[in-house]
């Protein structure tokens, strides 16, 4: 089953507990520390544009790339309301194409965890390197092995005013793959509910492996931090941020 189809319409409602303002402030802080205070920035795996909008409001010229037409439709609607000059492109992150290079690429909210094979992650890293300005930066986050292990096999359910979901989670330790089956009930016309079913897969990557793939792609690893603390990742870190730099095209 394809992911982010039926879920797209209620994604923001179920993610209303995500502190996007704090996340974007942290990301902007990292960018400014790297000397990137303006210019073109690509949001890779932008979804409904929650982070893209906030980075645009912070003064960056934003491009958003996502492979879900349904998610981008919502992002475009937000753009119409805000009037921000964001360019959205319906593209797979493994094959994205830009019109030129950008000062930075960001990818957050565990978008890269959706790449299940090392060669897929390497392909994205190479594309990012290709489209970065000389010396440009790549900032991305990843859910960790520890987080998926803590989730393990469980069932989560939430009920909202106009929708509800059941999340059945399974973690395959040997493959380091996390699977979650979503069953959604979304209110439509005449108070009738439609049922949607989606299956999502994410993979955890050890930081050592990520460093090796960045190097192979021509990117220079600059550092890794526990999300929102700025400290080095530890064994109980659930999300990490990685910073890499363009160091010369091959």
UniProtKB/TrEMBL annotation:
Protein's UniProt keywords contain Methyltransferase: yes
Alphabetical GO biological process terms: methylation
GO molecular function annotations of the record: methyltransferase activity
Domain of life, per lineage: Bacteria
Gene3D superfamilies assigned: S-adenosyl-L-methionine-dependent methyltransferases (2.20.25.110), Vaccinia Virus protein VP39 (3.40.50.150)
InterPro entries: Methyltransf_25 (IPR041698), SAM-dependent_MTases_sf (IPR029063)
Sequence ranges assigned to domain Methyltransferase in this UniProt record: 41-136
Alphabetic keyword roster: Methyltransferase, Transferase
PANTHER family cross-referenced by the UniProt entry: TRANS-ACONITATE 2-METHYLTRANSFERASE-RELATED
The protein, known as: Methyltransferase domain-containing protein
Organism annotation: Diplocloster agilis
């Amino acid at each position: 089953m394809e992911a982010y189809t039926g879920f797209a319409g209620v994604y923001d409602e179920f993610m209303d507990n995500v502190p996007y303002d704090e996340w974007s402030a942290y990301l902007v802080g990292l960018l400014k520390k790297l000397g990137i205070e303006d210019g073109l920035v690509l949001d890779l795996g932008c979804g409904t544009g929650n982070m893209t909008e906030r980075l645009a409001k912070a003064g960056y010229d934003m491009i958003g790339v996502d492979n879900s037409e349904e998610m981008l439709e919502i992002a475009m609607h937000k753009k119409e309301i805000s009037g921000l000059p964001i360019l959205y492109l319906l593209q797979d992150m493994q094959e994205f194409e830009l019109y030129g290079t950008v000062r930075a690429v960001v990818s957050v909210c565990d978008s890269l965890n959706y790449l299940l094979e090392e060669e897929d992650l390497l392909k994205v890293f190479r594309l990012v390197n290709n489209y970065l300005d000389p010396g440009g930066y790549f900032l991305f986050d990843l859910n960790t092995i520890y987080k998926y292990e803590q989730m393990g096999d469980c069932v989560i359910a939430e009920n909202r005013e106009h929708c509800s979901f059941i999340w059945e989670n399974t973690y395959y330790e040997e493959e380091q793959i996390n699977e979650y089956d979503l069953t959604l009930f979304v209110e439509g016309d005449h108070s009738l509910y439609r049922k949607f079913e989606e299956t999502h897969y994410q993979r955890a990557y050890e930081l050592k492996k990520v460093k090796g793939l960045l190097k192979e792609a021509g990117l220079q690893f600059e550092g890794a931090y526990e999300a929102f603390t700025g400290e080095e990742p530890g064994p109980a870190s659930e999300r990490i941020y990685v910073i890499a730099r363009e160091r010369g095209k091959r």
